[in-house]
Amino acid sequence: MALRTPDEYLDSLRNQHPEVFARGQKVESVVDHPMFSSTISCWGTWVFRAAHDPELSATMVASPDLNGEQSHVFWHMATNPDDLMQNLWAARLLSERSPLSGYASIGRDELQSLLMATHDLDRERGTDYNARVVEYVKRFQREQILTAAAVTDVKGDRSRRPAEQDDPDLYLHVVDRSQDGIVVRGCKAHTSGSVVSNELVVIPTRAMREDDSDYAVAFAIPVDTPGLKLVCRGFSGEDANEFEAPISSHDDLMESLTIFDDVFVPWERVFLCGEWEYAGAIANNFANVNRQGYLGADVGKLRLYIGAAQLVAELNGVAQVPHIRDKITEMIRLERSVWACGVTASIESTRHASGYQIPDPVLTNAGKNVCMEGHYLAARHLLEIAGGSPMTAPYVEDIFHPELQPYIEKYYRGADPDGAIERLRVMKLIRDLVASEYGGYWYTEIIHGSGSPAAEKIQMYREHDLDYCRQLAQDALQGRAAVEGRLEPSASV
Amino acid sequence: MALRTPDEYLDSLRNQHPEVFARGQKVESVVDHPMFSSTISCWGTWVFRAAHDPELSATMVASPDLNGEQSHVFWHMATNPDDLMQNLWAARLLSERSPLSGYASIGRDELQSLLMATHDLDRERGTDYNARVVEYVKRFQREQILTAAAVTDVKGDRSRRPAEQDDPDLYLHVVDRSQDGIVVRGCKAHTSGSVVSNELVVIPTRAMREDDSDYAVAFAIPVDTPGLKLVCRGFSGEDANEFEAPISSHDDLMESLTIFDDVFVPWERVFLCGEWEYAGAIANNFANVNRQGYLGADVGKLRLYIGAAQLVAELNGVAQVPHIRDKITEMIRLERSVWACGVTASIESTRHASGYQIPDPVLTNAGKNVCMEGHYLAARHLLEIAGGSPMTAPYVEDIFHPELQPYIEKYYRGADPDGAIERLRVMKLIRDLVASEYGGYWYTEIIHGSGSPAAEKIQMYREHDLDYCRQLAQDALQGRAAVEGRLEPSASV
Amino acid sequence: MALRTPDEYLDSLRNQHPEVFARGQKVESVVDHPMFSSTISCWGTWVFRAAHDPELSATMVASPDLNGEQSHVFWHMATNPDDLMQNLWAARLLSERSPLSGYASIGRDELQSLLMATHDLDRERGTDYNARVVEYVKRFQREQILTAAAVTDVKGDRSRRPAEQDDPDLYLHVVDRSQDGIVVRGCKAHTSGSVVSNELVVIPTRAMREDDSDYAVAFAIPVDTPGLKLVCRGFSGEDANEFEAPISSHDDLMESLTIFDDVFVPWERVFLCGEWEYAGAIANNFANVNRQGYLGADVGKLRLYIGAAQLVAELNGVAQVPHIRDKITEMIRLERSVWACGVTASIESTRHASGYQIPDPVLTNAGKNVCMEGHYLAARHLLEIAGGSPMTAPYVEDIFHPELQPYIEKYYRGADPDGAIERLRVMKLIRDLVASEYGGYWYTEIIHGSGSPAAEKIQMYREHDLDYCRQLAQDALQGRAAVEGRLEPSASV
Amino acid sequence: MALRTPDEYLDSLRNQHPEVFARGQKVESVVDHPMFSSTISCWGTWVFRAAHDPELSATMVASPDLNGEQSHVFWHMATNPDDLMQNLWAARLLSERSPLSGYASIGRDELQSLLMATHDLDRERGTDYNARVVEYVKRFQREQILTAAAVTDVKGDRSRRPAEQDDPDLYLHVVDRSQDGIVVRGCKAHTSGSVVSNELVVIPTRAMREDDSDYAVAFAIPVDTPGLKLVCRGFSGEDANEFEAPISSHDDLMESLTIFDDVFVPWERVFLCGEWEYAGAIANNFANVNRQGYLGADVGKLRLYIGAAQLVAELNGVAQVPHIRDKITEMIRLERSVWACGVTASIESTRHASGYQIPDPVLTNAGKNVCMEGHYLAARHLLEIAGGSPMTAPYVEDIFHPELQPYIEKYYRGADPDGAIERLRVMKLIRDLVASEYGGYWYTEIIHGSGSPAAEKIQMYREHDLDYCRQLAQDALQGRAAVEGRLEPSASV
């Protein structure tokens, strides 16, 4: 099949009828409801259009997919470091224009994790999950089905595991099995992009124990599967004005509480059902693959911030002030550090027995951690460089009010006598990025997106070669012997 | 006069008819327009009510004022360290309930700076400004006139001083003088609270040189003085819902671009006119006094954050998790550091020849700087502790939608089976504080409010006793002599 | 008795004959051994001389002590905020000249904690410990006995409490009781200044449980009590040259491993013996009182660093470079933040039932934590401002080598043609402070001195008024009601 | 020629007779003087031995060099990304054992910069410098001549350029030219490793202007060239004990003040003489190449720190304590961030017209900056995890004193009853690394080694693609057009 077009994508949405709630209403058509337009643009039409853009297509098109054909890079499964690098670049380029669009590969990331885990599972247990995943991925790639990731359960009491909750539904679980398929019940939180997606890919959120086996379940279903309810939350408002909100008027990522009210899944779409020992690997590998792309996306976003900082500094006439340059330089250092983690995680990746490529987990997690701390610093620097105007500049209606516009043009100029309107545009851009409701989304996303900092730290500690490092220290205890080739074997500690 | 009541304040607003623009409309009555209600509550009714509140009045009422009577503490001028401490406590208590209300004393802070500067000016020049300021302050205190501070000019090209701009109006200046008064033209940016205030107090934004003397002008005028136009910007929206926005539905601080289109000011309200040598002192002392109260307000806000962090940790069932406790502890450390700077700046204050008390400038600026960096860290910790739900929790209309509410109550519980609604309330509180448009205001305010970090650093460097410190180092060069009482005088460097 | 003189102190040392080991030798006389001279100067002669110095005596002499007479401030027990402020100033002034001397009050801090705890203990148990402590303190004050604090046990397996260790001696404990006194066995680590002190004050290192009761023991003994062995460690070397080491040639703090090999303590010197419930309070209150003085000492040290930074910047000709000024300003901000915590902990202190004053524990711990992080930043800034010369400047013997001195004077000048030697002195000062073995002591001391950061955090979390903060958040959930006086009582969480 | 052996290197030192001053003495033979042994081991015998070590030789041997033969990797010039990666690995592996040895390639880095600059220079000016450099490099590689870098001039008044100084010798300059060669006068500071090197490679320290042309000079000379005086400074002491100082007893880097007292250089060793336009490129490219290797070395050092932290945590019995794991994880994150910058700077390097490979300058400088900040954090964490014992543990002579050893073994154990001596060894290792005179060297080196942080920031700002970033921001001002392919060309700012 050819590369999917934005229009084909919109048609596919119109052909689906999910049960979507927003602001107390059931939504008939997300395509026609203004509340969803920014998310549709961000995760949908922009992502698909980019593969047709002459300047971007070299990065956006990958091949061969499992059908032996070319596909959109965000539907491609990495089998070598170059694939990971292409993915990193794609996420970066998409996010330079639409910061949240770099996360649109999340369903692909789950499927790559499932391809790896089911490979091991089938080999160890004689099951046939992998063939089902492969079959699903072929269609996923051929049609470039837009998928959302339903991962995080609502969890109830966070100090108890799934089977220990007093309400068994606080983690998604299998409540019935038949010849045709399974029935699941529960609820996933924080399902980004579900309402503009065609399908959901559902995986476990954590490692499990034997008595949690009913909770070890993975599958893919269309968003309009009966019993599924999506309760939405968006950020950019229904009437985002392009002057006031130059980014968020086309960049948003609706979230949903995703309720599975006894949803039936046919066996050919079931990718894990009861094999609790594999839940942890699926969750971890997904996070790891996902964080690799996250780094590319973050670099795109940071480059936009750096550009805005430099631009506003020039318009304010302070681009040469030392502390302004220092702050921009610090933003550059952060952006480059994130990029370096992304590149090195790709280069120093390893190949799984299934043939798929796993980015280095310490580096993806280190990078994600830098993203998080760096976002707050970059936002602060951007606001400091801009001054108070992102916050206090008048509403667009007043800027262009006939009685006021002459005053605005007179008084909002910076160094350039005719620069008032451009300067106001930049102030609005900065407000939109880091001092708006959309900005509020980012302050949260950068922490919890693709997993929490606490989870990242656990991964880093666990995956680093501490044994090698400890041995270096033990060898050092022997003094000069360590550099004179006379080391005696250390007793283990 | 008795302490002003909220109703008296509202009546006073109704009796004024400023030229206010918002969203492309001239506003007839700010009291009756929903867009202004949060600001009116924050800076107005809450501040006045607090002085009548049995639990708060001991802190909120100060005496004697210049009329020899008691007044609201935010209308009181400090003449000793205890006054400064009372002001700090007042700002803190007000902000604990309504974070932005702690800044409502800003007009008082300008007037205190004017009382000091005109005292010196009159003594040195034989002018009679001080008597005018005193007369104004007496009425200000007696009636508890709510005033906004018009300080920051629009500035045009930031690399040029006022007289160097190619448009002379880019800093506010005197364009005419007559027997009755002066006429001023120009434009002030970032005038917080102007639309809910009774009057504006206007002072220079910076130190000036001789050719800037027309720009050295200070005065006070009612907000409905002819020629004055207020172009507004607010943050919490017109229809803020108390469930969605428990704080910003009553806590906002409308900003304005404040245009002076040939505004007449009678001489009895003119507090500086041409004496350019005093512009810097007025601006600096204002900033210094103002930053002292800022610290109290920031502590109030941070205590609310700490409480929200602790509460959500308990509801999530993770209050005993070490990294959660660490983060709350770091928030405590920040809050206490800000408080300590505020207290010590008050205790180690100095008395100006006019009899008014000046907080220690290094400590107020150090504290303000900690506020700024601390805000970003505290916000991040609060969001990390809360998890993703501040961002993704459904709209209030869906939470209480009859079809959805049972699911919401089932799935949003934490450790407590019946705790879903309270937990959602807390998530909304946290979103409102640090991940909303109102939160966006804060990320900017904490940097630029009461002056920029760059200005704070200049003050700290300039005001610290570097000579004493350098002498310590020079004495240390003499080795043991420094502790044996044998120091020889160092040559100066 | 009059204020003790340095000579009286030295005589007292000569009259004692502790069992001191250093570099494999038993030391006959610490006064006459060059290894101890810096410590004797720092904790001893300088501290005593300061009380006789005309410029310092107003701060250094306090009264009345328990004998109703005046004494050295470091032997004075605080009974009000002013006493605490005097202590803070004294620690600061001493440390400005000799950074480690500000810690010389540590034995006094233990005794103040014992005065408080035994007051409660006697009242609750009918014991008579307090009278013994009072009697001891009277002599301590009258004679200004220099005491070291033996607090931290060697601890063995850190995951077990005292009674759980497989060797019972890993915490100091009572092994025999008789009519005359007790016999103790065990070992304390990190006993600062013991070898130049007259006596040791020994207290428990932590809270205990019932089966630890033999470990709940406190007392004071002369350093030459039979069975006591002090195994020393110093930092500044035996032959510190004043040019190379202008500070550490008179500022050092020898540490000891302090072995109690069945040491007898007569009952009149026993201040706790078995009452395990009081061990925690003694340890905590000691830490709290001690950290208050720590803050003053740290400010003294930081002021010396700031002076050195400013001085070297001027000599290098870069005092006006923006990033240099920024770094000095950051050092100022840190110093002022520590000072503010110290002042506010003193002002907001509380009075114990025994009449002694307890500094605010959240503020002392917050301040100590800032000291620690600030030290590393201040050291880094100081070294960055200085350039590489602290590290690479020649040895003093080469600087004044006849053949080399002309080259040195030619090539080490900065802006001043004749400034080479002074510039080299400053480089040596900076090296001594932060890039030497003595500097290495500081990098450790600032973390572990007066307790670890982890302990500080526990105290801050435990002592902060989290209930009040949580209530603020709960009230905020009610929206406008919180500022309109309509709050309904919250259900507790 | 075969790979140089440690013995061949030592022989070469014995055959040279440089004029070396240390502690007021002229040194006859550095090989036989104990003060130099650690530096000789670190930069010399260890570096050469590593190429013969079976486990390391694959990394340590590179080919082909300019003679078409294999050589030590630190004598190899990179012509592609793989060469840079090999260099990075080599620096890391060497530094894992001997942290300062990873910098031993510094002379090679200067020569690579000269190879590039003289290529351009000859092409543009018709000179023949490049052939001289090539000829020198061939011998340099064939014999594996150990070279030190003389770069930083003493500089005098830092606010003036070379020709503006009132003493013309404050930057190294040509004072005579003859048919045979040139005569130079001046003085370089901070020449690391000069006394254990065979030759010095001398380049300009900064960009120059036309009137500075006599200062634009580069060349290579043996360390015993007449007129050259090396005034030394070392750190680890002459008698470093392997128990007390397990690292610094074989890891030191003597620095020298390097005086050129009218030193003659024959033309075949002169690589720049007067062409001031090339001075900046030589200095910058050297710094850039050098910083790439610096990153590898820093990773080696950080891995040793991480190992020491993990080891001491285990011996103390606290390896599972959350805040301990957090700190080790933060060290891991730092180490991986530095590594990622090094790898990515190598992968994203560019090829100079001369055929040599230039690492990405933004990434090398970003990485170096992270090294610097990270060092202070890693050192602090290491000391916090270890506790106070690195500072207070007894001298080795007391540990093994017959009377004391039983006490030491009893009381210094941690969790392991027999672990006292190993635990003490680790404490000594940690003290040696970060709390000793050697540690003091590191606190300075990490700031100023390979150029100052201020210089790094200038490079990052200058080399980043700010134009691209600014364009992103300008495109974003157009709103949805940016993702819909409808961008209009922005007016330039």
Walk across the major sheet of chain A and give the strand order: 2-1-10-11-7-6
What is the rounded Rg of chain A? 24 Å
Please report the two chains with the greatest interface, counting residues with C-beta closer than 8 angstroms to the partner's C-beta. Answer: A-B, 77 and 77 residues
Strand residue content of chain A: 5-15%
> How many beta-strand runs of chain A?
14
Shape of chain A: globular
Low-confidence stretches of chain A: none
The number of helical elements of chain A comes to 16
First-residue to last-residue Cα separation of chain A: 59 Å
User: What is the averaged pLDDT score of chain A?
Assistant: 96
Strand count, sense and barrel status of the largest sheet of chain A are: 6 strands, mixed
SSE string of chain A? HEEHHEEHHHEEEEEEEEHHEEHHHHHHHH
Estimated helix fraction of chain A? 40-55%
Quaternary status of these chains? homotetramer
Structural class of chain A: alpha+beta
Q: Can you describe this structure in just a few lines?
A:
By secondary structure, the first copy, chain A, is of the alpha+beta class. Helix content of chain A is 47%, strand content 13%.
Protein architecture, described:
4 copies of one chain form a homotetramer. Chain A is an alpha+beta fold. Chain A contains 16 helices and 14 strands. A 6-stranded mixed sheet of chain A has the order 2-1-10-11-7-6, with no helix packed on it. Chain A has a 4-stranded mixed sheet with strand order 5-8-9-12. In chain A, a hairpin with a 5-residue loop joins strand 13 and strand 14. In chain A, helix 1 crosses helix 2, helix 4 runs antiparallel to helix 8 and helix 7 packs parallel to helix 9. The longest helix of chain A is centred in the middle third of the chain and has 38 residues. The radius of gyration of chain A is 24 Å and the shape is globular. The model of chain A has no long low-confidence stretch (mean pLDDT 96). At the A-B interface, strand 10, strand 11, helix 9, helix 10 and helix 12 of A face strand 10, strand 11, helix 9, helix 10 and helix 12 of B.
